[in-house]
Write a sequence for this structure.
């Protein structure tokens, strides 16, 4: 079997020899070490046998000067197959291009439909799915799974109680169930507005109620800002006070950090491990062992190959092993203080209520001790300082 396979690689020819005494040709071939096999006598002056393609030229030389004639009966092996492929290259390439185009087009997003959404919600949904890459002409290989898309858009769109996502063929279908909100009339009990923090009042706008404080007044926490009593003395009425009072508040932030910081970065070296996933079984087939990096980050990616919307049972899993390295950075004194200033401001902004505005900052103290940089900063912030205080009968 092994010799047969080797012969097919080089090419095999079945020939027919006609003429007087063809056996003499066979003897001459054997003496010259030419391998022939499957010899059969058809008639007295006609024999047939197989010979390797590379020995055909030598066989032709043996026939010169004789009355024997050579006829090719059959050709087998790789050289003849490649010759046929050259002749039929256009056809083969066309078939290959068809299957490639068929595969790509069947894994492309051709469109999407949205049902049950108002125009406002539909616009928000289109913006949300566009952020995920779900749009016409995109390949579905790298898109999130339908359940991941559903979780993302449901979290993004507050007006929707439920968003159903289904991939049907080359299209996505979205079904939206919007919230039905019943707005009950707001019933507000009589109340005062008091200061929630110690501050200096910078602006004050009273819609309902009686102002007790004025702009530039210093107030402590709990001081009355706007009273819920209106009317002349003896004929007073209680109402829910309503106003906007912006005060200037002072915050002090203390931050520190080592002057030498350790960071982790990618080196650019990467090795991928490939696996075929058949059902629930993963079969490694390339770069089976993990790379010998001292430190690395691993990312797993799984393909989503489909045909006509049906997920193929065989998928490709790629484990990306990216080498990392740790390095130290020592900051200059002024550079370290700038980093701390940005960090302190960011920490304060995260703790401030919505609408607050930092209008000033002043460094109170800078120090470098034992390779540690410390900073103390004073901030001036404008923010809403009103806080409700119910009016209890008898006040």
């Amino acid at each position: 079997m092994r010799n047969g396979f080797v012969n097919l690689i080089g090419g095999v020819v079945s020939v027919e020899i006609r003429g007087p005494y063809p056996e003499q040709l066979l003897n001459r071939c054997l003496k010259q070490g030419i391998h022939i096999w499957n010899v059969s006598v058809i008639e007295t002056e006609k024999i047939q046998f197989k010979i390797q393609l590379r020995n055909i030229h030598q066989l032709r030389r043996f026939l010169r000067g004789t009355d024997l004639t050579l006829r090719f009966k059959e050709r087998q092996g790789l050289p003849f197959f490649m010759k046929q492929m050259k002749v039929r290259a256009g056809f083969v390439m066309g078939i290959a291009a068809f299957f490639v185009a068929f595969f790509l087009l069947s894994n492309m997003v051709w469109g999407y439909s949205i049902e049950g959404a108002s125009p406002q919600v539909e616009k928000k949904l289109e913006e949300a799915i566009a952020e995920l890459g779900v749009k016409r002409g995109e390949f579905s290989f790298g898109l999130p799974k339908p359940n991941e898309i559903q979780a993302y858009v449901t979290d993004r769109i507050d007006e929707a109680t439920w968003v159903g996502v289904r991939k049907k063929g080359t299209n996505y279908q979205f079904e939206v169930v919007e919230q039905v909100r019943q707005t009950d009339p707001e019933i507000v009990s009589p109340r005062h507005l008091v200061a929630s923090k110690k501050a200096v009042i910078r602006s004050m706008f009273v819609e309902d109620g009686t102002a007790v404080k004025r702009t530039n007044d210093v107030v402590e926490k709990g001081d009355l800002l706007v009273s819920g009593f209106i009317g002349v003395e003896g004929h007073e009425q209680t109402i829910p006070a309503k106003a906007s009072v912006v005060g200037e508040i002072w915050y002090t932030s203390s931050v520190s950090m080592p002057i030498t910081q350790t960071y982790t970065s990618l080196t650019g070296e990467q090795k991928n491990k490939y696996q075929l996933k058949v059902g629930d079984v993963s079969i490694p087939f390339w770069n089976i062992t993990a790379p010998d990096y001292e430190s690395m980050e691993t990312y797993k990616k799984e393909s989503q190959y489909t045909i006509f919307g049906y997920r193929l049972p065989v998928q490709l899993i790629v484990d990306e092993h990216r080498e990392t390295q740790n390095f130290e950075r020592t900051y200059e004194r002024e550079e370290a203080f700038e980093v701390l200033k940005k960090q302190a401001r960011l920490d304060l902004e995260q703790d401030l209520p919505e609408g607050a505005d930092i209008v000033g900052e002043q460094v109170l103290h800078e120090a470098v001790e034992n390779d540690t940089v410390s900073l103390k900063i004073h901030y001036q912030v404008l923010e809403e300082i009103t806080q409700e205080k119910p009016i209890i009968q008898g006040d």
Remarks:
- Residues 261-330 form one domain.
- The radius of gyration is 43 Å.
